[in-house]
Amino acid sequence: MRKTFIFSMLIAALLLNFSCNNNADNSKLKAPKDFLWGVASAAYQVEGAYQADGKGESKWDFFANKMGVTQFMIGVKQTGNIAINQYDRKQYLQDIKLMKELGVNTYRFSISWPRILPQGTGEVNEKGIAHYKLLIQDLKDAGIEPMITLYHYDMPQVLVEKGGWNNRESVEWYKNYATVVFNNFGKEVRHFITFNEPYIEFFLVDFMLNPMQSKESANVRYSKEILSVHHELLASAEAIKIYHNMNLGGMIGITFNLSPCLPMDSANTADVKAVPLQDELLNRIVLDPVFKGKYPENALAAIQKYNPSFKPSVADMQFIASNKPDFLGVNFYAPAQVKADVNAPLGVTWMGNNTDSVKMNTGPFMPDQLYNLLMRIKTEYNNPVTIITENGACFNNHEDTIVNGKINDTLRSDYITRHIDAALKAQKDGVNLKGYCVWSGWDNFEWVAGYTIRMGLCYVDYKTQKRTPKQSYYTYQEILKQQKQ
User: Angle of helix 170-185 relative to helix 226-245, nearest 10 degrees?
Assistant: First the structure.
């Protein structure tokens, strides 16, 4: 068991890494009464029941079961076949009870495309529709508004085998799927999200997995991913147009992972010079097409050097920009510490770079950078309605241990507190911020990391499915109580 003074020193070392201005004042800031406070999840990460009730195979069912992606990444085969069993109504009702006691008023979750359309297109699986209709009603009966993500990485595998998002037909496949979702759930749900994190799905995860299938150079493989991103942006614009034409009365947005880019070593000239390109490749590559109707110039040139066939038409760019989302979902975990590296794709890298003495899995712990990011969106992208759709932390699991029936995840608690402070300070300073969701309500299957990292407010015993609220759960609960006073 940790000695108190050692733990205090860890906290002190961590706190040196960030400096939210006027933090004591920030803690007194109040969000508007209609502010969305929530937790977030994704279907493949929590539902399980991967073959139940006529569900088709998803991209991630294939990755985990047949491709053995976690074996490749972490040395152990793990899957989302059971995950945290949230497809089971008895289980999810218990989780809704935990959310209600927590005090949130929204739950961001995703719908499994192959659970609705097992073959990607064509016949609708009525059992899948019935499941989500009941979940939506159960949430609303508990006073929790559903926020639905249509696509969170789990394209039906039958469509992946037809070229997936690299195939222009994917836009039509998605339009059909989105129409089914809106027809069945559009009147009950007030907030939809078209896509979650195109950058992460393609430039990070799919790119990392490509060596298992391709012998092309890293530069070529990386640059080819832009076509899939482009098709998702087009599909998002199509879904937004469909939603608006249906006059459903709610809002529809898109979620991007966004990270301010900082030099890994500010004294290293190469690292400093690498920052603008990395910022274009990580942030502006998705923000600029949606809000400005064009891809950032330097990133596009770097990609076209290795993928000269990528030449988006004027019509495509105009269509994306003319069907803007009603809100921007922001997934923020940490800033990106950028390093120049001739061996990295396009000569820049940020993943895994972290100068903190106490390491957070997702990068350096700097809440002030969330404030800076939100202010930048306000200034550079005409202050769109913004919802923080994911924000959370894992410190290499050293806090996520049950001791005498409790999980004292003090660092995560501090992370959530300070990031909420930063978000509310940005709102006070004019950012059009309408919501905040913690990732996640529960420990779950964390993609290529499987179950080796924990990011939940509730500890999950994966063998028994028992939930145990952590200190961070009670910290967030207290913040929400104060917000309601």
Answer: 30
Residue type, 204: L
Contacts of 470 (CB under 8 A, 6+ apart): 400, 407, 408, 409, 412, 456, 457, 458, 459
**246: confidence class by pLDDT, cuts 50, 70, 90:** very high
Residue 403, phi-psi category: left (phi > 0), alpha (psi -120 to 50), beta (remainder): beta
Mean pLDDT score of the chain, rounded to an integer?
94
Task: Give the pLDDT confidence of 74-132 residue by residue, as tens digits.
Answer: 999 999 999 999 999 999 999 999 999 999 999 999 999 999 999 999 999 999 999 99
Could you tell me which of 436, 324, 447, 443 has the C-alpha nearest to residue 384?
324
Percent of the residues in the chain that have a pLDDT greater than 70, as a whole number = 94
Q: What's the residue count for the chain? A: 485
Q: What are the boundaries of each domain within the chain?
A: 21-484
Q: How far apart are CA 206 and CA 170, in angstroms?
A: 17
Residues in Cβ contact with 36 at an 8 Å cutoff, skipping those fewer than 6 apart? 105, 106, 145, 147, 191, 387, 434, 435, 436, 437
What is the DSSP-derived secondary structure letter of residue 165?
Answer: G
Q: Cα 464–465–467 angle (5° rounding)?
A: 120
Name 4's Cβ contacts closer than 8 Å, sequence gap at least 6.
none
CA dist 369 → 18, 54, 289 (Å): 9, 44, 23
Of 285, 295, 412, 281, give the one whose Cα is nearest residue 350: 281
Q: What is the DSSP letter of 168?
A: T
User: Above 70 in pLDDT, residue 449?
Assistant: yes
Q: Write out the catalytic residue numbers.
A: 197, 390
Q: How far apart are CA 109 and CA 318, in angstroms?
A: 30
Q: What is the pLDDT of residue 396?
A: 84
For 321-364, how does the pLDDT look when each residue is reduced to its tens digit (9 = 90+)?
Answer: 999 999 999 999 999 999 999 999 999 999 999 999 999 999 99
pLDDT recorded at residue 1: 37
Nearest to 469 by CA among 177, 71, 97: 97
Rounded to whole angstroms, how far apart are CA atoms 170 and 120?
A: 10
Non-local CB neighbours of 271 within 8 Å, separated by 6+ positions: 263, 264, 265, 338, 339, 340
User: What CATH number belongs to 21-484?
Assistant: 3.20.20.80
Token pair 């039906």 is found at 156
